[in-house]
Structure formats: structure tokens, C-alpha cells
Design a protein that fits this description.
- This protein is an alpha/beta fold.
- Helix content is 37%, strand content 24%.
- α3 packs across α4.
- The protein folds into two domains: 40 residues, no CATH class; 220 residues, Vaccinia Virus protein VP39 (Rossmann fold, 3-Layer(aba) Sandwich), CATH 3.40.50.150.
- It is built from nine helices and nine strands.
- The longest helix has 21 residues.
- The strands form two sheets. A seven-stranded mixed beta sheet has the order 3-2-1-4-5-9-8, sandwiched between helices. Strands 6-7 form a two-stranded antiparallel ribbon.
Amino acid sequence: MGVLKKVLGKGSIRNDPGVAAAQMGETPSMETLLEILRERRIDKISPNDAMNWGNQDHYFGVGASALRCVRLAMLAAEKDSLRTILDFPCGHGRVLRVFRAVFPEAQITACDLDRDGVDFCAKSFGAVPVYSKVSPKDVAIDNRFDLIWCGSLFTHLDQGRWHGFLELFTSLLAPRGILVFTTQGRCAAKRILTENFYGLDPDQVSEVVDDYQRTGFGYRDYDWKPGYGVSLSTLPWVLSQVHKLPSLRIMLLQEQGWDNHQDVIACMRAE
């Protein structure tokens, strides 16, 4: 029986018609999954969580938005079972807490350069801790995954590491496993011109947007963190990178699918 079908919850959701439908073999509705999330979610937030900007409604909403993306990808891939999940980069569990609530029987691996974040996810959500490396060639993970969620990593990488991490994730997918990752496209290309939270100076913004418009990809480092910055990529450019990996089958494209901001691409590893 698939993990999505094992969503018998606690308290009020036991009598929910969506849960009853799941017992009969149907995929639960998004409304049912959100109710399960509200019932089961662990709300503890690390004081070191850089993604917590003080607006908890938005913080938890970003996690729910990721769940919508994953559910759509699972539907597109005709997949109702998630035994193993990798959240990379996991941060301090903004999305991982959602996976723990909705897929309680899955083995979840938390991976990030931020060791404090990995440790928090292991302690608070029962995740398997793995510390990442700057180079994808140095990342060592033994397991293979039914789902890899990669929220806002490619948005910070140059072309070299962009392709390296895409290769890494492909190698970590189980047969028919799905990779769901996010990028910054047309929405971000507009917002970066007027909103300062992207962290680049005006000259860098102009350079990134110009490269993006000319070539489909633009990137500049943060001044304070060489090798890490902001990238913009058109969907055609993103697809051109996926096409270099013949074992990946594209299942879903969704502009502004995550948090009404980042584009979402879902791929399945062919058997």
C-alpha cells in the first residue's frame, strides 16, 4: 500500500471523507493532505533558521507549497509510494517537517552545508543526517531515493555546479524516483530589478539580467560568499540541462509553482 494511501490520521481527520477515499485506494485530495499536515506538523523552529523572517504564516505556507509541488509530481509520475526522501538542501527543516508529517513512514535524509540545520532536522524530525560539501563530486550519500526535493539550491549556483548537482541527484534516484527542484525564471527576473532581498548590488543585478536575457542563464556571486550567489534561468535553458541526462524523464513544469515565486521542474528516473 502506498505511503499516500497510509494517511489515517489522528483525531478529527479519522472521519474525513478524503481519508476514507484514501483507504479505498484513491489519492487524497490536497485539502486532506493539508488537514493531515495541520494535525501532525511539528511547529518548533530553530532560532538559527535563516528562513524564518518572523512571519510564521509565510514560513509554514512555504512548506505547504512544497507539498503541493510534490503531490503534483507524484500524480504526473503515477506514483503513490515514497519510502525514501532526500531533502537537499534541508536548511532547518522548513519543508522537511512537512514530509515528516505527511509521509510518517518514510525514511527522510537531511543534507546541507549548514551542519546546525542538519543536526536540528535529525533531532527534531527524525531525519538521517548527512553533511554536504561545496563540490557535488565530494557529496557521499549511500541511499537511493523515491523523492528528492531540492528547493532553492540551483537558484544559487553557477553553471558548473548547476550541472554537477543535477548529475548527483540523478545518480541518487531509485528507479522511477522523482526529482523535484526549483529555479528562478521570469518572475524572479522581474522582481530582482526592484526588490533588494536578492542580495546583489545594482551592477550585479544588471549583469545577471543581461546574461539571462541573452543566453537563458545569468549568475553572480554574493560579495560576501564567493562561489555562492544568485542565478536566473529560463525554462528552455533548464530543459537543455535536463536533456543532457537521458535517464531523466520530464514530468512537470510549473512557473512560479513554489511560493508563487520559483519555477518547479519534476523529473522521473526511467527504469
